[in-house]
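Input/output pair, single chain:
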Amino acid sequence: MTKIYAGGCACGAVRYETTSEPVFENHCQCLDCQKRSGTGHGSYLTFARRAEMAMTGETRSWRIVADSGKEKVHAFCPNCGTPVFVTFAAAPEAIAIHAASLDDPGQFRPQVLTYRARAHAWDRIDPDLVAFEGMPHG
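Output:
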């Protein structure tokens, strides 16, 4: 049976779906994720091929230079403001969806914690996860 990853924004105007498997699932405690989420971290499922992600509805986006010095593009629903996905200048084929935007957020299986160096004491993440001070290379 093929697993489907589907979800979208809070108001339903933006939807996505794929049968691809994520190549990376992480919590990220970088400052960008903290500010955008309004809490201590963001949680993502990254898929290798954006072209395999069916998307309906219009998004708006904004760009930021990440701690790595490379550009990221954050896409959100212009109606409700829900962050939906992130794309990367350094990996233009990839797409990362926000774990909480999944119809079934229980599909999210975090593998690692990134940017632990930016963590706040009040944002506790599973201590059994492999943790990196920044973003792992490779």
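The mean pLDDT is 94. The two ends are 31 Å apart (CA to CA).
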